[in-house]
Every structure is written in C-alpha cells, then in structure tokens.
Write a structure and sequence with these properties.
By secondary structure, the chain is of the alpha/beta class. It has helices spanning about 30-35, 55-65, 125-135, 150-155, 155-165, 175-180, 185-195, 235-250, 255-270, 285-300, and strands at about 5, 10-15, 20-25, 45-50, 65-75, 80-85, 95-100, 120, 140-145, 170, 200-205, 210, 215-220. It starts with a strand and ends in a 5-residue tail after the last helix. The structure holds adenosine monophosphate.
C-alpha cells in the first residue's frame, strides 16, 4: 500500500547531556519517511526546504528510496530551523527556537500521482497545512496525524478542525494533557477521541506508549536502553514505523494495530541510539524483526 508523508524538513540544533549538533538534518517528515521506508517503498514525501538545504540531506532521502517529487525547493528561502535542549532526564526538553522560514508561506501541493495514496501520515506541522493536504486527497484509507505543543498552544482551534478528519492521532503525554485539559491520560484519551480520532496513541518517552480506542486499552513497554544518545525524532520514528507496518500489512484489526505500536516503538528505539537521523540510516529488516521479538519477550508472562 502507498504511503504519503507530509511534515517538516529541518536543520536542527540539539544539545543533550552527551553532546551537541548544529544544523543537523531533521524534521518530522524526514524521520517519519525514513522509519516507514523500512516497510514500504517508495514512501512519498511532501514538504519544503530552502536553497540552504544541504545536499547530504537529499542524499539521505535518496538512500532510503524516498520519493521526493512532492518536495518544494525555494532557492531564495531558508530551511525551517528548530533548536532544543534536553535535560538530564531525557524525557524533558525545552524548545529553544523555532524558525518557520519557508514554512511560513508553504502551500502543500500534492502531486497528482500522490492523491490516491492509501495511508497518509501528517507529521508535525501547522494544522492548517495538514487540513489543506487532506482537502486534496482522494479517500485515503487511513489518516494518521502527529502534532506538538507548539501548535496546540498557538492553533488549538485549527487543530481541532483538522482532528475531525483524522482516524489515528499520535501525541506525547504532555501534549495530550495540554490538548484535552485533563491530567489523567485515560480520560485525556477519551476527550481527544471525542474530537474526531477513533484511535489515540499517547507516547510516554522511556515509559512506553498507550493506545486507546472505544474497545481497547493497550499499553506497550519502551525498550530498556542503557545508551540513549539523542531522543530527537523518537516520536516521529514511532509514527513512521507504525504507519509503515500498517501499510505493509494493510490490516486495521485491533491485533494488528498492537503490532504496529510495537514496530513504531522498535523504530523509535533505533532512532535514539545515535545522533539525529543516523540511527535510521542503515538498519536491516532482520534487526527490526529481532527487536520486535525482544519487545514481545519484555512483557510476556505465563499463567
Ligand atoms: P520529535 O522529537 O519526534 O518530537 O520530533 C523532533 C523533530 O520535530 C525535529 O527534527 C524538529 O525539526 C521538528 N519540529 C520541532 N518543532 C516543530 C514545529 N513547530 N513544526 C514542525 N516540526 C517541528
């Protein structure tokens, strides 16, 4: 099944207690597409960059066989930039700056050949742009969406308009609390489902993920890791692995949604082992399967 990914392509400046990077390749669409590319090929990407986007960024997308027909390059513009600092507790991060640059005037034009894509993953960008993407699609089978505190704080009403058209929303615990105004995550999930999505997945960093539907609450562990190098992109890698598996299997049953959560968690665990997108550069399908099995063993117990 075909997968369309729309989101940010970024130059990230990141500080963690273990090191720092300036203008590293990042952005929600880059992480999502790279993670999904281990399950389906080619993943279609729509986004925008400026003339300063480095050629090794394009080379990375090419290596992962990502279709960039929908990538707009604004030669005189500047690429989106984000900078963030992680605390000693890597679940805590501060966004230091967000420079929308070419995203300020971005009009996501979906190429004709992408409009019938079955699986659409709307990465973290302005919810108005997410909605504009959906207006151009021809009856996608599933729309999966991610968002961030930045947009919940600034464009909550627009986000709620977009959510009416979303089947699966993926967000982290603090974002879920912010969007629902509900401290308890089970209740937050219910409030968010009343906004549109029938499946809500709340990521809890190193504490795993919680998937909720009307009939299901599924709690997935996180992979116990001794060496987390850089958590940037973990959420997007989760969304990419989740979407990629669903598209590859083309099965939306509850047992398969659970498998997709585990594949998402597996891709997120690979992502954080290295800086920036490096953890997603050259995995093998076998490595992913092995980690999937390790996840299964993590919380299996006998009667
Ligand atoms: P994650 O760690 O999965 O939450 O995603 C981190 C990525 O999101 C980084 O590579 C950033 O470039 C990107 N990002 C940060 N803030 C925004 C924003 N406001 N809009 C779009 N993308 C963003």
């Amino acid at each position: 099944m075909s997968v369309l990914v729309v989101g940010s392509l970024a130059l990230d400046s990141i500080e963690t207690p273990f090191g720092s990077a300036k203008d590293a390749l990042g952005g929600s669409a880059v992480y999502i597409a790279a993670a999904a590319s281990y399950f389906v090929n080619p993943v279609r990407l729509v986004g925008v960059v400026g003339g300063d986007f480095p050629s090794n960024g394009l080379a990375f997308l090419e290596e992962r066989k990502i279709d960039v027909e929908g990538l707009q390059v604004i030669a005189e513009g500047k690429t989106f930039r984000w900078s963030g600092r992680y605390h000693y507790d890597l679940n805590e991060r501060d966004s230091l700056s967000t420079d929308l640059n070419v995203f300020e005037k971005f009009d996501p034009l979906i190429p004709e050949g992408y409009r019938k894509s079955s699986f659409v993953c709307l990465g973290n960008i302005d919810p108005v742009l997410q909605r504009r993407v959906l207006d151009q699609m021809e009856k996608p089978r599933v729309v999966i969406c991610d968002t961030m505190n930045y947009w919940i704080e600034r464009k909550k009403k627009e986000l709620q308009d977009t959510l009416r058209f979303i089947k699966i929303l993926i967000l982290n615990d603090s974002e879920a609390r912010l969007l629902s105004r509900e401290p308890n995550l089970i209740r937050a999930g219910r409030v968010i489902r009343s906004m549109g999505p029938s499946v809500v997945i709340i990521k809890k960093g190193e504490h795993g993920a919680l998937m909720m539907t009307d009939t299901l609450t599924f709690s997935a562990p996180a992979y116990p890791m001794e060496n987390i190098f850089d958590p940037t992109g973990a959420g997007d890698s989760f969304a990419g692995g989740f979407t990629g598996w669903l598209a590859r299997s083309d099965d939306l049953s509850e047992p398969n949604l659970k498998r997709a959560v585990i594949y998402g968690s597996a891709l997120a665990s690979f992502c954080v082992e290295k800086f920036g997108v490096e953890g997603l550069r050259d995995l093998t399908y076998l490595q992913i399967q092995d980690r999937y099995r390790e996840f299964r063993e993590l919380s299996r117990f006998e009667d």
